[in-house]
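// run 5 | inverse folding | seed 20
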């Protein structure tokens, strides 16, 4: 597919009520290719009137034919949508590559997961059920529960996985019979708009899936809107805190998947042939722009030097380049602001005494100057109190440490305000189980990293958020439980 033709028009409007509509104010913002700086599109910048319009349309759709649609019909629509996503995946992948800078070789791989998520949630649509519950009140009294859609959902999405997040946020909405106002990140709005068009083509009624494009203030307005029943947010911890505050006055349901500073722990008995490339991929995939990236690498002292030598050598071979080149493994970071933020962390780390073992600079020359490319960077001589050991950098930067004992590394791994992901590398079953029980994080990957499946929950502990995505736990987040009492006497 030609990169020059995948974006249908330079002017991209919102999709509300089944129609493309401009912002009421007429304002637009630019989205650019982070690999080249090239203007991709001018996108409608939604404001207060547009937020109100989108929420009103979603509320009206909630009480329309959608509310009377049988679960099997919703399921059929979702299965059709999964087929359409597969059929149009090359286009969706190209949009994300152009908008985000992720290598096309990576975005193309998302097809199986995206279609799998939609088919999983389609299956869940026919499994939603209440319970008949015993009670101890006098007389012949029947008690049971009903499961009902929570209502209008606002999804506020991050920029690091645009089409994947659109699918992940929409799946439980469609399965449960809710309606959605989705606000994609301003850096990467294009694939969300195309996905919403596919929803319409699949038979999703007008107004059920709406895409409101805009800047951060649009997300803030959605969070505080009195007619929104639930917020589903993925992004930084700081923004998540603001969303929770904005939602509090109306007591709307909130689920947040936030930042991370995930430990990746390698024991001396690990299979190094697997652990070395996995440790690199855990932090450098998507240019480090993954919330559960394994950015804190703990290696047992007896193998530390050997492991680091092998890791540095492996990481040197990682190809940074044009995202459209099929051989590229790492593309640019999403924006100049993000690049400058990451480089400031790198500079600060050296000032605190960390020793760069690899990288540590912007990649320049040979066609890189127009884009936002950063070399894969590995720091040694890092202490647990350094800024790069504590703060989420969200870039291709790894901090490496050595450790001696299980008790020591458990304490250090947990000495963080975050708790999203973690990795453990060992051949010892007892060590694996002890670590899995001891690490305070929502996911523990043993002898692997970043495994995800539609049926398995994902989410965080502590400042990494609350609520779960994927699995039946995810669907439950979009339902209200109503108790019904019937006196049969």
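// decoded
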């Amino acid at each position: 597919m030609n990169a020059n033709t995948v974006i249908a028009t330079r002017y991209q409007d919102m999709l509300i009520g089944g129609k493309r509509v401009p912002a009421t104010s007429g304002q637009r913002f630019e989205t650019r290719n982070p690999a080249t700086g090239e203007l991709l599109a001018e996108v409608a910048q939604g404001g207060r009137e547009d937020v109100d319009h989108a929420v009103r349309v979603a509320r009206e759709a909630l009480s329309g034919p959608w509310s009377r649609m049988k679960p099997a019909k919703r399921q059929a629509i979702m299965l059709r949508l999964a087929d359409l996503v597969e059929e149009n995946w090359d286009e969706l992948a190209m949009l994300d590559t152009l908008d985000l800078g992720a290598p096309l070789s990576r975005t193309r791989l998302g097809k199986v997961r995206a279609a799998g998520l939609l088919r999983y949630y389609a299956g869940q649509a026919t499994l939603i059920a209440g319970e008949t519950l015993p009670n101890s009140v006098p007389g012949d009294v029947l008690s049971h529960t009903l499961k009902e859609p929570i209502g209008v959902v606002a999804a506020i999405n991050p920029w690091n996985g645009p089409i994947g997040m659109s699918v992940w946020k929409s799946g439980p909405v469609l399965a449960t019979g809710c309606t959605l106002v989705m606000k994609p990140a301003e850096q990467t709005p294009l694939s969300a708009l195309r996905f919403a068009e596919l929803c319409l083509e699949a038979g999703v009624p007008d107004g059920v899936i709406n895409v409101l494009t805009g800047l951060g203030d649009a997300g803030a307005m959605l969070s505080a809107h009195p007619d929104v029943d639930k917020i589903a947010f993925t992004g930084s911890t700081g923004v998540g805190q603001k969303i929770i505050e904005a939602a509090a006055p109306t007591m709307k349901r909130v689920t947040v998947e936030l930042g991370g500073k995930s430990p990746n722990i390698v024991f001396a008995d690990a299979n190094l042939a697997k652990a070395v490339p996995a440790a690199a991929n855990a932090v450098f995939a998507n240019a480090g722009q993954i919330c559960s990236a394994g950015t804190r690498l703990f290696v047992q002292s007896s193998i530390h030097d050997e492991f680091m030598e092998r890791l540095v050598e492996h990481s040197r071979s990682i190809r940074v380049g044009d995202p459209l080149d099929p051989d590229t493994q790492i593309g640019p970071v999403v924006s100049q602001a993000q690049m400058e933020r990451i480089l400031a962390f790198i500079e600060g780390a050296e000032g605190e005494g960390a020793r760069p073992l690899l990288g540590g600079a912007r990649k320049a020359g040979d066609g890189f100057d127009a884009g936002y490319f950063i070399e894969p960077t590995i720091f040694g001589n890092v202490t647990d109190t350094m800024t790069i050991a504590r703060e989420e950098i969200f870039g291709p930067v790894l901090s490496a440490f050595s450790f001696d004992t299980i008790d020591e590394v458990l304490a250090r791994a947990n000495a963080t305000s975050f708790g999203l992901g973690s990795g453990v590398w060992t051949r010892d079953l007892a060590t694996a189980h002890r670590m899995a029980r001891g690490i305070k994080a929502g996911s523990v990957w043993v002898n692997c990293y970043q495994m995800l499946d539609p049926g398995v929950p994902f989410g965080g502990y502590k400042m990494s958020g609350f609520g779960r995505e994927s699995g039946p736990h995810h669907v439950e987040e979009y339902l209200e439980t109503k108790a019904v009492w019937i006196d049969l006497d």
